[in-house]
Design a protein that fits this description.
Strand order of the largest sheet of chain B: 2-1-3-12
Number of domains of chain B: 3
Number of domains of chain A: 2
Helix content of chain A: over 70%
Low-confidence stretches of chain A: 1-11
Shape of chain B: globular
Largest interface: A-B, 28 and 31 residues
Distance between the termini of chain B: 43 Å
CATH class of the largest domain in chain A: Mainly Alpha
Strand content of chain B: 5-15%
Oligomer: heterodimer
Number of helices of chain A: 13
Structural class of chain A: mainly alpha
Shape of chain A: globular
Chain lengths: ~300, ~450
């Protein structure tokens, strides 16, 4: 303690002299990282924001600053809001389902049983698969004529005729959500498993000795301690789900009747099919802002959780 | 499919080219050396003349494969004369047409004259012309030269009264039918949509077939093609002739879309699944023998005749699509057409390449080696084409009805609106209301 208290006092004059070149060197060494990050991350974002304030289009060759005209148009664009709601619905439904199912899987995998290592590794297979492959696979599973899902449901007597999963606006989005849940739940389970492993065993043992049963242990000990991990995992998942593109692009192309159009597919169409870079950037910026709001909500919750824990 | 994409000649062909090219290289080398020797005595005049005499231009196209590639085609042109040297710029394959489009737009927008000559999907022609990137070709190809092409293709190549593209090769929608099933139900290929629906329903009811009629209702470009065909066959149109307003909420178009909706909802000759099907999902039940009629492109034919992939070998016929009473059969035009960059610095050379690519000889070569149908009706009577591509030769009647999709520089926006609007009408059945909304949207885009 005394050494620590005296050292800074004694060393200060000399240290100050060295500190300047030290900071200087640090800055020099950080510059390459900063420049590369700025050029691939900061510049595109700022440029995207700027583009969204212009009427840039490769076809008309316009490139004029138009202020907030694109955003005014966006506000009144029914297709944009249609896609916005679909994206929110997809994000909410898939995140909640994946969190709940993932938590269940994590709790099971946390217990000691024979072959646990193998199961943990096998569980990750869906997540490791390229999404386009998953999409094609689900395309076949839920095929309206020859799909095995229809076959099973029909023979189990749950439906009396084939359901046209991707061809009907009532079921298309739900099918895409199922595909996403299948694919990404393992990722959630993995994150939550690491969280569960940080819960001290001594606490659980103490609770058991006090007579707490499984459910009580989970509800009053594991879950509260898992909360920060849960929120961070949920945040990751929600932001990722918000960008959903491949599943929709491969399975339905946004149809039928725009019922599966999401913000990513819409901005892809506006940007790269019609080459309206100005308006397309406005759509992307709106996406960016919405994601920011989602992240903010999660972070506020998270901070409150951490404060309460302290 | 992979068999088709293989290039059987790929192993042997280049060898022949290389030897010829080597020899040529040698000759050119000898020539320039001689010229250089001469130049020592007579000044630089000759050398300059040599460099000028071989104009260098570039050609960009989506990459098609067959027994040879477009690169081989360009090589052949380079060897056929010694005034022009063409560099081939290969774009992605036609299956990635969005990427091909982006690639072309980015190059043309630079306005630096590269590529001098390019091939373009029919739906981009108006956009390129309106942007001023495509050179009007009227003075080079007057009316008498144009009459050698299909009228529908020429229309698609014309924007604002000017010919801005030269027809190259084409495809179109067509009507596939099962000969054996049709034999049981009258034996006559239906010429009106109503007859088609009646026969299909009867065959379905008799249990001869699972599905009467298959088409493509997925919210995608192909839905616009299906719509153009059926609307035009009822004397309707998507855009007014001046391209400044939409006619899609008029009687002709609404009836046609209503018919498509009815195939699922009322006459039930089509499964509800067509609403999520594009070309391949609709082709599969047909070639596995489950369907009687189908609308699709020409690529289905070789698959239908392949015993490994098809249950209906020798049982399939092809005809022009049906029409409404008082209307004419119509087939949606596809394919790639040629254009010259308006900023090309070698205009004469570019026109020469263009003329060669679209000539009878080259179109015949493309038909034989790539299986891509010519845009010159005369070639369908050509003995060699008839012998080697009998199916293609039989399509002259189908291609005569080829109709362009809406010709507007705003096509990319119009097609997205059409895909969404028509899909909504097909799903909900409120055809008139959805078409009114759609017309309003399109008017905003093109007006």
């Amino acid at each position: 303690m005394t050494a620590a208290a005296t050292l800074p006092g004694a060393g200060r004059p000399r240290r100050l002299g060295k500190a300047l070149p030290g900071a200087f060197w640090a800055l020099i060494l950080l510059t390459p990282a900063f420049v590369s990050l700025a050029s691939v991350s900061f510049y595109p974002i700022v440029n995207g924001l700027y583009l969204s304030l212009t009427n840039t289009s490769l076809i008309t060759q316009d490139q004029d600053f138009t202020g907030f005209a694109n955003y005014v148009q966006l506000w009144g664009d029914a297709q944009f809001w249609n896609a916005w709601w679909h994206t929110i619905w997809f994000t909410a439904a898939s995140t909640v389902l994946e969190t709940v199912i993932g938590l269940g899987m994590a709790l099971i995998l946390c217990e000691a049983f024979k072959g646990r290592g193998l199961v943990r590794a096998a569980m990750l297979v869906p997540w490791a698969m390229p999404t386009v492959v998953t999409s094609k696979m689900f395309g076949w599973l839920f095929d309206g004529q020859n799909g095995i899902i229809n076959y099973l449901l029909l023979h189990a007597g749950l439906i009396d005729q084939n359901v046209n999963w991707y061809g009907s606006p009532n079921t298309a989005m739900i099918t895409i959500i199922i595909a996403d849940v299948w694919k990404t739940t393992p990722f959630m389970a993995l994150l939550l498993l690491t969280g569960l492993q940080t819960v001290p065993n001594s606490l659980i043992e103490a609770a058991r000795m006090d007579g707490a049963k499984g459910w009580i242990t989970f509800w009053y000990i594991r879950l509260p301690l898992l909360m920060p991990t849960l929120l961070i995992a949920g945040l990751f998942r929600a932001l990722d789900a918000f960008r959903v593109f491949d599943l929709v692009y491969v399975l339905t192309g946004g149809g039928p009747a725009d019922s599966t159009e999401t913000l990513s597919t819409l901005s892809y169409k506006v940007l790269f099919s019609t080459l309206q870079f100005g308006y397309g950037s406005a759509v992307s910026t709106a996406m960016f802002i919405t994601e920011g709001i989602i992240a903010l909500v999660f972070v506020v919750y998270l901070i409150r959780q951490i404060r309460r824990a302290q | 499919m992979t068999d088709m994409k293989k290039r059987p000649g790929a192993d042997t062909k280049p060898v022949g080219h290389v030897t010829i090219a080597d020899r040529r290289q040698f000759l050119i080398g000898a020539g320039t050396m001689g010229a250089a020797a001469l130049a020592l005595g007579t000044g630089l005049g000759i050398r300059k003349a040599r460099a000028q005499s071989r104009a260098e231009i570039s050609f960009a196209s989506a990459a098609f494969f067959g027994k040879e590639t477009f690169g081989d085609l360009i090589k052949a042109f380079n060897e056929s004369q010694d005034r022009i040297l063409v560099k081939n710029i290969e774009l992605p394959p036609p299956s990635s047409s969005t990427e091909v489009y982006q690639g072309l737009v980015q190059q043309l927008a630079r306005r630096n004259g590269t590529p001098d000559v390019f091939s373009q999907d029919v739906i981009w022609i108006a956009g390129f012309a309106a942007a001023g990137w495509a050179l009007p070709l009227d003075e080079y190809f007057p009316a008498d030269k144009r009459s050698a092409y299909f009228t529908g293709t020429l229309n698609a190549c014309t924007y604002g009264g000017k010919l801005t593209a030269l027809p190259w090769f084409m495809d179109s929608g067509m009507f596939y039918y099962r000969k054996d099933v049709l034999e049981k139900h009258g034996g006559k290929v239906p010429e009106t949509w109503a007859d088609m629906a009646t026969i299909a329903a009867a065959a379905q009811k008799a249990g001869d077939i699972d599905f009467g009629y298959l088409w493509q209702g997925k919210q995608a470009e192909v839905l616009v093609c299906d719509a153009v065909e059926i609307i035009t066959s009822n004397n309707g149109a998507i855009l007014a002739p001046d391209g400044k307003s939409s006619l899609i909420n008029q009687k002709g178009a609404v009836e046609a879309i209503q018919f498509l909706h009815d195939t699922i909802a009322t006459t039930k000759i089509s499964p509800q699944d067509v609403l999520s099907w594009d070309e391949e999902p609709s082709r599969q039940p047909f070639t596995s023998g489950k369907a009687m009629f189908m609308r699709n492109w020409s690529y289905v034919w070789p698959i239908a005749q392949d015993a490994k992939a098809s249950q209906v070998v020798d049982k399939v016929g092809v005809a022009p699509l049906p029409s409404f009473p008082g209307g004419k059969s119509s087939a949606c035009l596809g394919g790639y057409q040629l254009g010259v960059n308006a900023n090309s610095k070698q205009r004469e050379a570019a026109i020469e390449l263009l003329t060669w690519l679209s000539s009878t000889e080259t179109q015949q070569r493309i038909a034989l080696n790539f299986g891509l149908a010519p845009t010159r009706p005369a070639l369908f009577q050509d003995e060699k084409v008839k012998k080697e591509q009998p199916f293609m030769a039989s399509l002259e009647k189908v291609f005569t009805g080829a109709t362009a999709r809406p010709i507007t520089p705003e096509y990319a926006k119009v097609t997205l609106a059409l895909q969404s609007g028509i899909s909504k009408a097909l799903v909900s059945g409120n055809v008139q209301a959805e078409m009114d909304a759609l017309a309003g949207q399109i008017n905003k885009i093109v007006g």
